[in-house]
Amino acid sequence: MKAIIVLAVIILFMILFILAARSEAATVKRKDPAIKSSIEVILYSSFWAMLSHRLAHRLYNMHLFFLARLISQLSRWLTGIEIHPGAKIAKGVFIDHGMGVVIGETCEIGENVLIYQNVTLGGTGKDTGKRHPTVEKNVMIGAGAKVLGPITIGHDSKIGAGSVVLSDTKPYSTVVGVPAHSVTRGIQESAPSDSLDQLRFPDPVEMELCRLRVQIDKLERQIEKNKTEENHNEAV
After folding, report:
1. Is residue 164 within 8 Å of 145, Cβ to Cβ?
2. Under DSSP, is residue 139 helix (H, G, I), strand (E, B) or coil?
3. Are 107 and 134 contacting, i.e. CB atoms less than 8 angstroms apart?
4. Mean pLDDT over residues 49-56, rounded?
5. What domains, with CATH codes, occur in the chain?
6. Taking the model in full, what pTM does it have?
7. CA 59, 193, 79: angle at the middle one, nearest 5?
């Protein structure tokens, strides 16, 4: 009887693994325009990291913590991507290149999120319980970005490369800088994670200079108007 139960569990895990593999392969082919054939998906670190995490997360939920951590550490060694088995990751998440990515235990990632290399979704060391970020669907996180603490990144947002995000962002936000702040110009871009675009970000310095230039022009016009009125009064 025990042998039958063990066999049934093994078969169930194999079925789940195959389904997960098909899903992750579809994500890789959809997200990376560089891929030339379906077989290439097995060469992607994201493919193996996500498959390993799916298994590790199931074991984690079964309170098999050591085995779950063992699988996650083996995956880290093989792929360069460190995902704690407690992290909750939805379908369609793609980690491009992947080396140096760290995802913490209480992190939650929604569907269709794109993460580039050297991204950290971590804690600040000051929180308990929920310590890591919640990233909603369709978010793009640029290379080297650090998203820290129990904050929420609103859906359809873009985080610029190298940014350090320490506070919540609203949906459709574009954030850059250290610390990061919103530079959205009122344009709602849906699913930036599908654009793969890390270049066309608003420049906050340029935006501030433009604002100051407009203000200076306004003041100069007011000064000219005042001079004209003074000259007119003197003439009268």
Report:
1. yes
2. coil
3. yes
4. 90
5. 1-86 (no CATH), 87-212 (2.160.10.10)
6. 0.73
7. 45
